[in-house]
Specification:
The structure is a single chain. The strands form 3 sheets. The protein has an 8-stranded parallel sheet with strand order 3-4-5-8-9-10-11-12. A two-stranded antiparallel sheet has the order 1-2. Strands 6-7 form a two-stranded antiparallel ribbon. With 334 residues, the protein is of the alpha/beta class. The protein contains 12 helices and 12 strands. Helices cover 38% and strands 14% of the residues. Strand 3, helix 1 and strand 4 form a beta-alpha-beta unit.
Length: 334
C-alpha cells in the first residue's frame, strides 16, 4: 500500500485505516475471537491506522484494543498510528451519551484514562470527538497541546467541526487531521469550504463511515436483516420510510461497480481514495473477509470518467433521511 500523510507535519499512515468501533459496540453482537484475528490480519496487510474512541462501548473498545496491543512487540507498536477520541460522556444509568465535555480538565482526565485502557504510553493521534460550544476551542486545543508537550500524545485531530472552528484550533497548535463523515452517501460535509480549508492549512481528512454504515456494501437487502442489537435500526437512513429508496441507490452503485470488475465496497472506497492523497478512509469491520475486500480497494485506480460514473449513481439530494438521529445531529457542526 502506498502510504499517505495526514497533514503537513502529521503521521504517515496506510491509505486505508481500520475503524474498530464495531468490534465492541453498535453493529450487532461482538465476536472477540474473530475481531482479534481481524486485527492480526490488518497488521499483515500493512494497515497502520487504527481508530477507536473512549465513547465506543464506554471504554470497552479501547480496552479490547489494549489487549491486542499487549500481544505486539515494541517495534510492532511503533509501526501503528493509534487514534482515539474524547469529549462524549455517558449517563451512568442509561449508558447513553448525555454530555459533551471539552473542558481542559476533562481533556487531561480523558487522555490518561484512554492511555490506561489502551495499555500504551502514548496516543499517536488524539481527536476531540465533538465540541461543546460553551468551551472556547482555544481552551480545548491548548490542553491537548500540553499533552503533546508531555509526550502523551503525538498529533492532534478534531472531528465534526466547521471551517471557522478548525482555523481557530489550528492557530493554537497544528491540527494534523479532521475526521468527518464522507462517502458517496454523504458528500456535503467535506466537499466545498471544509475541503478547501483543510487543503489551505495542510490538514488531512480521515473519512469515517465511508461505506454509509454498511449500506453501500450491498450486503443489506432489507431492514429486517438488522438484528435487534444493531444500532442502525434507530438511524434515519435505515428507517422503514427511507431504506427502500436508499437501497435503490445502492443498486445503481452495484451496477457501476460490476462494470469496473469490483464489489460495491471496493468501488466506493476507491472513489474516496481518488478524491485526493490527503484523504484516508477508515472502513470499520470485525471480520477478516470484509477487511480483505476493503483493503483491495487500495489497488484500484479509477479514471476521472469512472469516478464521475460513481458520483452520478448517487445524485445530489437523492439519499433519504438525515445521517444521524436528532439527538446526535444536535452535537454536530459546532
Amino acid at each position: 500500500m502506498k502510504p499517505r500523510q495526514l497533514g503537513t507535519n502529521g503521521p504517515t499512515v496506510s491509505p486505508l485505516g481500520l475503524g474498530c468501533m464495531g468490534m465492541s459496540a453498535s453493529y450487532g453482537v461482538p465476536d472477540d475471537a474473530e475481531s482479534l484475528r481481524t486485527l492480526d490480519r490488518a497488521a499483515e496487510l500493512g494497515i497502520t491506522l487504527l481508530d477507536t474512541a473512549d465513547a465506543y462501548g464506554r471504554g470497552a473498545n479501547e480496552e479490547f484494543l489494549g489487549r491486542w496491543l499487549h500481544s505486539r512487540t515494541a517495534s510492532q507498536r511503533d509501526e501503528l498510528v493509534l487514534a482515539t477520541k474524547f469529549g462524549l460522556r455517558h449517563d451512568a444509568a442509561t449508558g447513553r451519551v448525555n454530555e459533551v465535555d471539552t473542558s481542559a480538565a476533562w481533556v487531561r482526565e480523558a487522555c490518561h484514562a484512554s492511555l490506561r485502557r489502551l495499555g500504551t504510553d502514548h496516543i499517536d493521534l488524539y481527536y476531540m470527538h465533538r465540541r461543546d460550544p460553551a468551551v472556547p476551542i482555544e481552551e480545548t486545543v491548548g490542553a491537548m497541546a500540553e499533552l503533546v508537550a508531555a509526550g502523551a500524545v503525538r498529533h492532534l485531530g478534531l472531528s465534526e467541526v466547521n471551517p471557522q472552528t478548525l482555523r481557530r484550533a489550528h492557530a493554537v497548535h497544528p491540527i494534523s487531521a479532521v475526521q468527518l463523515e464522507y462517502s458517496l452517501f454523504t458528500r456535503d460535509v467535506v466537499e466545498g469550504e471544509m475541503l478547501a480549508t483543510c487543503r489551505e492549512l495542510g490538514i488531512g481528512i480521515v473519512a469515517y463511515s465511508p461505506l454509509g454504515r454498511g449500506m453501500l456494501t450491498g450486503a443489506l437487502a432489507a431492514r429486517d436483516e438488522l438484528t435487534t442489537e444493531d444500532s442502525r435500526r434507530r438511524w434515519p437512513r435505515f428507517a422503514e420510510e427511507n431504506i427502500d429508496r436508499n437501497l435503490r441507490l445502492v443498486q445503481a452503485v452495484r451496477t457501476t461497480a460490476e462494470s469496473l470488475g469490483c464489489t460495491p465496497a471496493q468501488a466506493v472506497l476507491a472513489w474516496l481514495l481518488a478524491q485526493g492523497e490527503d484523504i484516508v478512509p477508515i472502513p470499520g469491520t470485525k471480520r477478516r473477509t470484509y477487511l480483505d475486500e476493503n483493503a483491495s480497494a487500495a489497488g484500484i485506480t479509477l479514471t476521472p470518467s469512472q469516478t464521475e460514473q460513481l458520483r452520478a449513481a448517487v445524485p445530489e439530494g437523492a439519499v433519504a433521511g438525515e445521517r444521524y438521529p436528532l439527538a446526535a445531529l444536535e452535537r454536530l457542526g459546532h
